[in-house]
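Hi support team,

I'm opening this ticket because the web form for multi-chain structure prediction keeps timing out on my end. I have pasted the exact lines I submitted so you can reproduce it. The total is 432 residues across three entries, so I didn't expect it to be a heavy job. Is there a limit I'm missing, or should I split the entries? Thanks in advance, R.K.
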Amino acid sequence: MGFGIWTDRVEIDTQGNSQVLDITPQVRGVLERRGLREGQVLVFVTGSTAAVTSTEFEPGLCKDLPAFFERIAPRSIPYHHDETWHDGNGHAHVRASALGPSLVVPVAEGRLLLGTWQQIVLIDFDTRPRRRQLVVQCAGQGEG
Amino acid sequence: MGFGIWTDRVEIDTQGNSQVLDITPQVRGVLERRGLREGQVLVFVTGSTAAVTSTEFEPGLCKDLPAFFERIAPRSIPYHHDETWHDGNGHAHVRASALGPSLVVPVAEGRLLLGTWQQIVLIDFDTRPRRRQLVVQCAGQGEG
Amino acid sequence: MGFGIWTDRVEIDTQGNSQVLDITPQVRGVLERRGLREGQVLVFVTGSTAAVTSTEFEPGLCKDLPAFFERIAPRSIPYHHDETWHDGNGHAHVRASALGPSLVVPVAEGRLLLGTWQQIVLIDFDTRPRRRQLVVQCAGQGEG
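Hello R.K., no limit was hit. The queue was backed up. Here is the completed structure from your submission:
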């Protein structure tokens, strides 16, 4: 049993359009496979139109969060990004940068130290379904 | 003296309603008790209606930050979350998810590498006073 | 070759006014000098008027991100912070706190696990050119 860092990849299929997905089960799965007892899990989404945060994962907030992002970075206004690429996802980039691609969650006694009504979520802001690549990195004291 | 990770809990009483609290003294206290010389401190708030960030902790910004969140996620508009729970804190959830529950701060020579006018703050967005649970996790080279 | 944590400082000259700067080359430079093979890089900006996130670094988004922050935290509205200091950068503080001063990026096989169109960026919200201090901290298995 020693201190170490272990890097895993997890793929998640999304619907895009600011879909909020509970990825706590996948993160917990990596944690258990790695046998992390005391340490941290870094969850990082590759790409610049998705982001990671925590929320109470329930149907109401899964509508409220997209509505919030539509209010602060509306899809319909002009973005300079779309002049560059013409792919109509300028709003998705702005939302993802505002929220950020990573979250670090502490672990003790083999458990994620989340609240009871607090889940780790991926929000995919892109305008189409995507297969997302997550990096889940455990750091700390493992059982191995 | 070796590489390790140490998990501490800190309780903070808040007034809710987007109160901004300077938690730098509590984080520094954990750091000093653990004797962390070179490494990082992860500050993570348990629950999904509070968040952690850094700011210059002064009375003006302690009003400006709540005003900012009231502008981007007003308390008075309808939230689907409130249809689920009827507890009137949909705005608090949205604000907390937007800001995020965690912050990682580097440490060198036993000191937090913050700017002179940069403090670690907890913002409690809930609609009532709460006793908040913070996880403060030191990782790195300790004295122990 | 062992587990360790290494703290480096990087200085970046900015124009302020929400300028978006690609700091991926500087972060990669530290990574390579330290020979980090498997682990994480923490990027942290000292001070409370700048922030770190990731984005596709291209000219369009370098205009869209400042426009986004101008929309959600306009420069021209009154801030209580300016009553305290009269330095006219209340909006810069609010924007920086909202985005956050730090980003953790995973590393494997000596490479930052970013997407192809995903760069690490510093956004300087202050109202004047600044020389910014970044802390770049590598944690993990190095070659040394």
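A quick check on our side: The CA atoms of residues 35 and 143 of chain B lie 5 Å apart. Let us know if the file doesn't open in your viewer.
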